[in-house]
Write a structure and sequence with these properties.
six-stranded antiparallel barrel, 15 strands, 35% strand, globular, disordered N terminus, six-stranded mixed beta sheet, alpha+beta, 296 residues
């Protein structure tokens, strides 16, 4: 029996993401609007740290930033010229995963007060205290829907170097450039403050997932029913979904999707799942190729 769900919008959807279903996301370069210079590029550093922390959280499908994706496209363009070896190892065009969500923002304030210390380290010609002091960064962060370009959520984050309980943080050598007795980026006050801000930022982004509509598409129907989502997106054996036809209400002036309605015609249950696809059993109703699928 068909059921109608009429006029519900993405931001207030009754069928919000459940069960750790994941979305593809990329971090755009954060602008340094704080006027802080002299040690390392705080915008590039924060972007690297945020990408790393989102990947570690396992709540998203994390894509490379614009620079990484640009490098990948350059390799594809080079392969298309025929100047490099072909075959299965050559990167193919049209295979890049699109980002459903974008994270972008600005560093609006940086405060780095270093206490005096007998031990000093050198970083690109600048002398830093080995210990003590305090770092603070202020971040404005936006979560953007890549399909519409609209800001879905925003927040102001303040990271401080002396806060305890940082759960994600950033510990590595991706920024490099440190020498002397400093063991790594995690011992720089501004670095610690950025790690704290990243931790708070990731927590904020995860909280927004309940307001983002997760969906899939039936790519094969008949003897086998297959969805274009798999373990990469968090789909598991036993998950249940509803499938149906979606009708969009489009603004004739701007082309913007104002709302949509869905006629539910079937219920699906996942019986087998691979990285990018899920095989389902039709529990009730019937499905056709191209139908939209939502979590039940």
């Amino acid at each position: 029996m068909k059921q109608m769900f009429l006029l519900f919008v993405f931001a207030t959807s009754l069928m919000a993401a459940e069960g750790n279903l994941r979305y593809s996301i990329t971090v755009e370069k954060f602008k340094n609007e704080a006027g802080w210079h002299g040690r390392w590029n705080v915008g590039d550093g924060f972007t690297t740290m945020m990408t790393n922390a989102l990947h570690q959280s396992d709540d998203f499908i994390v894509l490379g930033d614009a620079e990484m994706r640009g490098a990948a496209m350059a390799e594809q363009d080079l392969a298309a010229t025929g100047r490099v070896a072909g075959g299965k190892k050559a990167p193919k065009m049209g295979r890049m995963t699109p980002a459903q969500l974008l994270v972008r923002g600005s560093i609006t304030h940086v405060d780095n007060t270093t206490a005096k210390s007998s031990g000093k380290v050198r970083f690109k010609g600048i002398s830093l205290g080995k210990s003590g002091g305090k770092g603070e960064v202020n971040i404005t962060m936006y979560l953007v829907d890549s399909e519409t370009g609209q800001v879905k959520a925003s927040t102001e984050v303040i990271g401080v170097s002396n806060r305890s309980g940082v759960s994600l943080g950033y510990y590595g050598s991706a920024l490099g450039g440190l020498s002397g007795n400093l063991a790594g980026f995690e011992k720089d006050n501004v670095g610690k403050a950025c790690a704290d801000a990243v931790d708070k930022g990731v927590e904020f982004l995860v909280q927004q997932l309940e307001d983002v509509q997760w969906e899939a598409t039936v790519i094969m129907a008949g003897s086998k029913t297959i969805l274009n989502r798999g373990t990469r997106e968090g789909v598991r054996v036993g998950d249940t979904f509803i499938a149906g036809e979606v009708e969009e209400l489009v603004d004739p002036d701007s082309g913007e999707v104002l709302d949509f309605s869905m006629t539910i015609v079937a219920e699906l249950k996942v019986t087998e799942v691979k990285e990018k696809v899920a095989y389902c059993k039709v529990v009730s109703g019937a499905v056709d190729k191209g139908m939209t699928v939502f979590p039940k």
